[in-house]
Amino acid sequence: KDSSTKATKKPSSVTIRGQAYDTNAAWFNVPTNVLDATSRKLHLLKDHPLQITRQVMQSNFPAPTYRYYDDLSPAVTTHQNFDSLGFPADHPGRALSDTYYISDKTLLRTHTSAHQADTFRADESDGYLVSADVYRRDAIDKSHYPVFHQMEGARSWDRSKVPDGDVAAAVWRDVEKLPKHNIVVEDPNPTFHDERNPLQDGHHSAAEAEAIASHLKRSLEAMVVNVFSRARAAALKGDPNFVDEPLRMRWVEAYFPFTSPSYELEVYYDGDWLEVLGCGVVKQDIYINAGVPNKLGWAFGIGIDRIAMLLFKIPDIRLFWSRDDRFLSQFTGVSDNLDALKRFVPFSKYPPCPKDVSFWLRGSTTEEGNAQAATHENDVMEVVRNVAGNVVEDVQLFDEFTHPKSGRKSAAYRITYRSLERTLTNDEVVSLHNKVRKALVSDLGVELR
Ligand code: FA5
Ligand code: MG
C-alpha cells in the first residue's frame, strides 16, 4: 500500500501542536521537514507577509458578523477532512500519493474545509473565517510548496429567525449592505444549471439560491477589489515600471463535493487567468449532519500564499519559509499599519544549477509477481525535497518512454538547485545530486540509467 519514501524513519508517535498522535506504519508518510512546518504558524507571525495578507483579507469580513478561528491544529481526522464533506470513498485526494497521513484515522488537513462541519455545529455567529496551514503532496516549482495556507469563510442564515421565513428577501437586504465596486466582472454562466451546476432540489428554492449566490459573489468581489487596490497602491509607490491596468475578474463554474452550485473566481494577472478561490452554496446535508438543519448559506476557500505573492510581488513561494533578515525585515511595521504596505524588493538572485537524472521506474509487479506500488511523481518530488530541502527550486519531468521489448518505463527529471540565500558551489551541488540519486534508488527502488 505504501508508495512513499523510506527515508522517513517511522516514529511510533508524533507530537503536533502539543498533542501526541499514534502513527500507523502502513499509513505514516510525513517527512520531517513537513512535520516541522506544523509549528511555524506563519499566518500568525507579526509582520510576516502571510500574516499581513490574512489581516487584509479578514478586514473585509468584519466582526461580529464573522468570527475568526486562526489557531486550529492541522492534525484532523479523515472524517473531518473527507467524509464529513461528502468526498466519495475512491476520491483521488484521499490517496497516500496526495495526502500526508499520520495513521489510517489522522492526517494533515488538505484544506480548511476540514473544519466546516465542526464550526457550523459550534459557532453561533452568522459567519466565520478559518485561517490555517494546509498540507498536500505535490509538484515542486516556484508556486508550489507542500505546505501552504488557506482562508475559509462561511455565511449562514437561519430560516427560523428570518422574518416571515422569507430567506431570499432577508439575504437580498444583506446584499444591499455590502460595499459596492464599479468593476465589470465577467460572469457568463447561469447561477445554477440542471446538469453542470445544480440547485439543491428540495432544500433551496431558485430564489434562495440566487440570493445566496449573489451575496457570496458580491462579498468575494469586494474582498478581491480591496486586496488589489492595496496591491496597486504598493506598486505605484515602489515600481517605476509598473503598468497600471484595470483589475479583471471572472466567475467560472466549478465542482466541490460539499457545495452546489459551485464557482471559482479568477483574476487576470501577468497575461493569464489565475484561479484565486473556490466557493459555493453549502450542501444542506452538512448543516443537517452538524445539527443545524435550519441554517443555509455559502462557503469559500482561498489560498493566502497565492494572494500574498500578488500583493507583495513575491517571486518564489519558498521565501515565505525564509528566516533570512533580508526577507523578513522588509515587512517590519506593516502589521500595525497596513497603509505602509510596499512591494518586496528581491535581493540578488543566485545562479541556478540544473542537473538531470534518469531511471527505470519500479513496475507494478516484481519478477516474483508480488504486487508493488508504482512510482508516483509526488514520491520523486518528496525524495528530492528530503535530501535538498529548500535548495531545490524546481523539478520537471522532461522525458518519459516505455521500452518496446521489456515494457519497462523510463523517466528523466531535471532538478534545478538554487539557494535563495547564497551561491551554491558546483561541488556542493554535485554532492547533493549524488545523494538524491542514491535516495531515489534506496527509497523508491528505481534503477538509475
Ligand atoms: C479547496 O481546497 C476547497 N476546500 C475550497 C472551497 C471551500 C470550495 C469552501 C467551496 C467551499 P482548491 O483545492 O481549489 O479547493 O483550493 C482553493 C484555493 O487554494 C485555490 O483556489 C488556490 O487559491 C489555493 N491553492 C490550492 N492549491 C494550492 C497550491 N498548491 N499552492 C498555493 N495555493 C493553492
Ligand atoms: Mg481549485
SSE topology sketch:
Layout: E1 13-16, E2 19-22, H1 32-37, H2 49-58, E3 66-69, E4 75-77, H3 78-81, E5 106-108, H4 116-122, E6 127-135, E7 147-158, H5 167-176, H6 206-238, E8 249-256, E9 259-269, E10 272-282, H7 284-289, E11 295-303, H8 304-312, H9 325-328, E12 353-360, H10 377-388, E13 392-402, E14 409-417, H11 426-444, E15 447-448
Helix pairs in contact: 2-8, 5-6, 6-8, 10-11
This protein binds adenosine-5'-[phenylalaninyl-phosphate] (FA5) and magnesium ion (MG).
Adenosine-5'-[phenylalaninyl-phosphate] binds at residues 111, 113, 136, 138, 144, 148, 150, 152, 256, 259, 275-280, 299-303, 305-306.
Annotation keywords:
disordered N terminus; seven-stranded mixed sheet; 11 helices; Alpha-Beta Plaits; four-stranded antiparallel sheet; BirA Bifunctional Protein, domain 2; alpha+beta
Structure notes:
With 449 residues, this protein is of the alpha+beta class. The protein has two domains: 13-340, 2-Layer Sandwich (BirA Bifunctional Protein, domain 2); 353-448, Alpha-Beta Plaits (2-Layer Sandwich). Helix content is 27%, strand content 24%. The chain is built from eleven helices and 15 strands. The chain has helices at residues 32-37, 49-58, 78-81, 116-122, 167-176, 206-238, 284-289, 304-312, 325-328, 377-388, 426-444, and strands spanning 13-16, 19-22, 66-69, 75-77, 106-108, 127-135, 147-158, 249-256, 259-269, 272-282, 295-303, 353-360, 392-402, 409-417, 447-448. The strands form four sheets. The protein has a seven-stranded mixed β-sheet. The chain has a four-stranded antiparallel β-sheet with strand order 13-14-12-15. A hairpin with a 2-residue loop joins strand 9 and strand 10 (272-282). Helix 5 runs parallel beside helix 6, helix 6 (206-238) packs parallel to helix 8 and helix 10 packs across helix 11. The longest helix is centred in the middle third of the chain and has 33 residues, at 206-238. The radius of gyration is 24 Å and the shape is globular. The chain starts with 12 loop residues before the first strand and ends with a strand. The relative contact order is 0.13. Mean pLDDT is 93; it is low at 1-8 and 365-371.
